[in-house]
Each structure stands twice: as C-alpha cells, then as structure tokens.
Amino acid sequence: MTVRTRAAALLGLILVALCAALGSAGPAAAHAVVVATTPQRDEVLGYAPREVLVTFSETIAVVPGRVQVLAPDGKRINVGEPEVRDRTVRIALRPSDRPLGTYLVSYRVISADSHPVAGSFTFAAGAPSATPPEPALAESESPAGVLVPAAKYLGYLGLLLAVGPPLLTATMWPRRRSRRGATVLALGGLGLVAAGTLGTWIGQAAQVVGAPVGQLTPTDLRAVADSDVGVVLAVRLALVGLAAALLPAVLRGDSSPAGRVAGAGRLRGAALAAIGLAGLVTWPLAGHPIASPVPPVSIALTTVHIAGVTVWLGGLLTLTVFLLRGTHERVLARILPAWSRWATLAVAWLVTAGVLQAAIELGRPSALWGSTYGRLLLAKAALLAGVLAVAAGQRRLIRHRVAASRPRWVARAAGVELAVTAVVLALTAMLVQTPPGRAAGSAADGVTREGVAQSLTTDLFTLQFDIYPAVAGTTNSLHAYVYTPQAKELPVAEWTVTAGLPEAGIEPITVDVFALEPHHGSAEIHFPVAGDWTLRISARTSEIDRSTATTTVTIR
Fold first, then answer.
1. Among the listed residues 512, 446, 521, the one whose alpha carbon sits nearest the alpha carbon of residue 481
2. pTM over 0.70
C-alpha cells in the first residue's frame, strides 16, 4: 500500500466517522434553554394578558423581527420591540382587541455561546381554540439544514491536519525525507478550516434570519459580521491566511547565510506558533465556554484540550502516513521516543483539561447519566480509555527500544488508535451541538391540563368555561366567562347552570352560581358518577336578552 493510499484511507475513515454524527444533529443547536414563561406554557387563563415574559438559562440577544405573539385569529398582537433584561425577554401586547382563545408565542434569539435558539409555546385566554395559530417556521425545521454541523466537522478535521504535520516536520523530521507531502497536508488542513469557517458563517446567517440558505441576501451575510460570533469567525479566517503565507517557508527552512544570521526562520516559526495558538482560541470563543459559569477558565481549558487533541492525533496521522515506512531503523529509534514524549504530554493535557471542563459543563454529578450531554461524555470516555490502553502498549515497545525494529506493529496499533479516535471525534462533534448538562432539567415546565375547558358561541355571546378537576365523586369547580363577539366583557344579570346524565337516568341538576365579577360566574358541582354529562349554561344579559349554550363534558 502506497503512502498516498494509506493517507486517503485514514483521512476517509476520520471523515466518515465525523459525518456519521450529522444524523443526530438537531435542527438548531439550542444551548440557551427557556427556564420560565409568564403565562406558563399551555396555561389556560380567565383573561387576555397585557405582556408575555420569557426567561432563558443564559444571557441572550433578540433577533430583530423574530419575536412575536400571534392572537387566536392569527394576527400579530405584540407592539414595539421586545425588551431584554439580562436573561428575560418582555413582550408587550396591544392593550385592546385581545380576543379569547389560544395565543402562540414564537421567538428566535442568539444565546451567549453564539447559537441561534428558536422555539414557541402556547397559552389560552379562556378556553383553547379549536385551531390554534401556527408559526411561519415550525420549531422542528432547520433553515440551515446540516450546513452548520457539517462545517464544524470540516473545521475539526482541518485542525488535525493543520497542526500535526507542521509540528512533526519542524521538530523531528528526517533530513533526507521530503517534506512536500506533509506541507501539502498541512495546507490542505488550513483550506478545510477556511471552508468550515465560511460554511459556519453562512449557516449562522440562515439560522439567525430563519431562512433557507438559498434565500439569503448579502445583507443577511453582512449582518453576521456585526455579531460576536461573526467577529470570531472573521479573525479565524484572517489567521488562516497568515498561517498559509508562513507555513511553506517554515517547513522548508531557510538554509541561506542571511536567513541563518538574521534568525528569520526562528522568527517565522515563533510567529506561526503564535498564530496557531490564537486560532485555537477562536473555537471556545464561539461555543459553550463563552457562556459557562466561569468563561475565562472554560476558554483556557477548551483551548488546551483542543491543542492536546490536534498535537496527538495530527502527529500520529503524520507519523503513520509518512514516517513509519521508508525510514531507517536507526532514525526511527530517535524519532519514536521523542514523539512518545510529545504524545504523552498532549494526552495529559487533553485528559486533564477535558475532565475539568466536563465538570463545569455538567454542573452536578447526576447530569453525567441524567442528560444527553453526560451520556455522550461517558461514551467518549469509554472509547478514549480503550485508545489509551493501545497507546500504553506502544509506549512500552518504545521504552524497550524494540518499536523501531517493528514499524508494522507500530503502524497497526496507530491505525487502531486513529480508527477509534475517529469515533471519539464524532462524539465530540455531537457534544458541541448538545445543551450542556448544567442546563438539563432547567427547561420551563408546562401546565398539566386537568379538567375540561371549552369555548362556546351563541347568537348573543361567547362563553368560556372550565371545570376542574372533572372527576366524579368529588367537588368540582366551574368558572364561566361571557364576552361579546368583539371579545369585550359582557355583564350577566342572571346565571342558570344545569348538568345531567340521561344515559344513567340522572335528570338535570340545577347548580347555584355565584357572580364573582359582572361577566364571571363560579359554581361547585358534584358529579355522582363518571360519564359524558350534558351541561347547559344560560346567561341573561338584560331584561329581554338571554341565551343558552349546551355541550357535553367527560367526567372521569
């Protein structure tokens, strides 16, 4: 098998494993979670509220024009721009013309970790509508499709290729071996990082405006530049350009007298290292760490974690593809111990930083097995433990100075490491799209609907009523509200309520009603047996105007 064939096989394996996670990617990587709403989700109120409050788990920014409240008739009823105070969005509603029925609240915001978050919930004024309004874009739809996760995976793969080959080439490459292949691989890695960054930019624009990629305008793309994540992505692209300009000269070296005297090669190498470190920092600045409880610590830990992964896996890939075959045994005997020390240090970095960052993102031990994020971490840790066991066996061969004489054994073990770590990388890619464990269990609870709530219309008025808990053999509360067809409160001069169960031979029972408000009546009803009861609610609104609404309610 040629070097080119081995490289293609290993790269293909990693790419396939990374892309396997695409099927598990959610429509929007929602990392800010709605922790409270007023009114509560699915709550049935006896009135139409004047405002809606939505509180998130972290600081957010509203996408202009993408937060709205739709009335039961489908018309937009919020007024002005939503007011944002730290984690809470306040949406004011029109003071008049607030009809009865189901209201839909839909929102699209940007979380502190740069991920667009979209969602919706409903509540009802009076009884729920038979056909509630629907948002223009369903919550399950994803404007960007798989573009954003695919772009992120592409960037991760590019990082491995952009860091590992230059590091090995600059520190322990044999003088007589050509550096061309490693240089091309590193430049290709930078190209993948750039492509992934551009894909993330386009996908971010699609998610922010809630439009498919094909419908984006230049204005939509420019709007990303004004956001925090846009600045980070722009800086990353600039750093990729600088690295691409310096990389060939650094890997080629400068053997001219002028270069040796001026130390130009060392200066370029130091500049490339600084650019690489700055580039690594852009990943945590556009992800979970920026919204963690301790952002500076999380950013530093994630940078160290990414550096450890790229040094270890990128270097291992380069060693396997270019150096294990065709290099003299005596040369390998010098390279392998040096590489083993590098790899050991890199693994120590990534494990230590990963454990500390996982503790921050989980927030509590129970989230390790009680959240999707925690379960992904457990799977990742189990696979990584197996890889480290294989790596430990390789290290023993190197320490006993037999690895250089058995390059095929080392290559096979390295292939196993790369194959398993490809799956580890896929799990890592899924983790960055999964809400952290610290957010698990904090989502706002909806109101559990118990009892019966209905909306009835007669030729004179609209009647909204609810019966709670709608259970036989206990006392049930009835509340009834009467409104004009224009949803104005309509005072009632006299209430008459009866309940009967003809199939069980129970004749209509008259219920005493108390007027709590001019348009609001309340009663206590005792249903002796379960069944489909016939309920008649009559309201006299003047000396001559009276109307009756009849319906069937199921009593458990």
1. 521
2. no
